[in-house]
Amino acid sequence: MKLMQQINKLPRWRQNLYALWIGNFATGAGSSMSLPFLPLFITTMGNFPKAELTFYSGLAFSITFLSQAIVSPLWGKLADRTGRKPMLMRAGIGMAITATLTGFSPNVWTLITLRLIQGAFSGYINNAYALIASEVPQQSSGQAMGLLTTGSVGGQLVGPIIGGFIAGIFGYRIPFFIFGGLMLMAAVVTYFGVVEKFTPVKRQPKSKQKSAFVGVKNVHIVWAMIISSMLIQAATNSINPIISLFVKQLMHGQGNVAMTSGVIAALPGIATLISAPRLGSLGDHIGPKRVLTGGLILSGLVFLSMFLTTTIVMLGILRFIVGIADAALLPVTQSVMTLNTPNESISRIFSYNQSFQAIGSVVGPMIASGVAGVFDYRYVFLMTTVLVVINLVVVLGAYRRDQPND
């Protein structure tokens, strides 16, 4: 009772932040509970050769983000007219239904089709960022975005571990049913826990509609953050379609591969959960450019080291360090966009960012599947190193062009 009274005394944006943290946690846990085991789930649907298995795994993972990339700008425009809370409800309910149906997939093409539909209704975490970004005071932006990130990352931490345990005992379908239940919970928490004071953007004739980037400060840096989000997602998600297969290779097919894959998948989440709020606050004090640059350099060095790893222990250590790098990347890009974007266009900017993130989540796994199919699983890490280097060049070039007081 006293806890509820204390929460009610908080500013409205903080109350929304805590409710959306729960929603982000549920979304992160549910989605990560099943993703590391998609390749193993697909192996139960047929006897596929290695090249075909990696192709199906990459397609099943990335096709969700393909449809997400297509529809996100449409949802963003709708959010500017109806508010972010309806978009959160749409994502929660839509993903609850599609995730549950995915657990009943009788074959690989049904699985892929349901993943495609799921992508069209996704976007809970991105809309949570947009809602908080429209409310949070500028001096607390980095800290708020970092805290919100710990919700999704915390879910991504426990999801694979719980999912691996459940999948190892009850099979690969059960985590999808739990995913559906978690998204239903996120929708309920959002409905009762989030209050949005929203002023709709007046709909104008097409001839008078302004670009979302009108009024954006440091537009080259904002575009660099959007492109950076795409490259971060491409690099981070490139391993997801093959992680359980790579773990199986390193373990020589011995032991509980599903459980070990879950732990390896979750390790970055532990590091990000610990470091994201601190690095978010650090960005508020020393400037996001320094934090972002340091995170990219660390990320590149770790991915290059993964190319050389030959043991599960070393892979786990390096995955943990990747989590620290991740904590310095996505929250900072979100904070930079928030600080440079006016409220009337923030939903559209964040929807473009989500589309680019989704494109990265399509391109990264598909290229990785091709690389793994032709060469070896470890060459995926060499590919991600190249993506990180490109990202660093884009970010530094944008800052040099706009020359902000950072």
TrEMBL record:
Subcellular location: Cell membrane
Protein name: Major facilitator superfamily protein
Membrane topology reported for the UniProt record: Multi-pass membrane protein
Domain of life: Bacteria
Pfam family, any one: MFS_1
InterPro entries, per database record: MFS, MFS_dom, MFS_trans_sf, Tet-R_TetA/multi-R_MdtG-like
Membrane found in the keyword field: yes
Domain Major facilitator superfamily (MFS) profile: 16-403
Keyword Transport annotated: yes
Membrane-crossing segments per the record: 21-42, 54-75, 87-106, 144-170, 176-195, 216-236, 256-276, 296-322, 379-399
Keywords, ordered alphabetically: Cell membrane, Membrane, Transmembrane, Transmembrane helix, Transport
Origin species: Paucilactobacillus hokkaidonensis
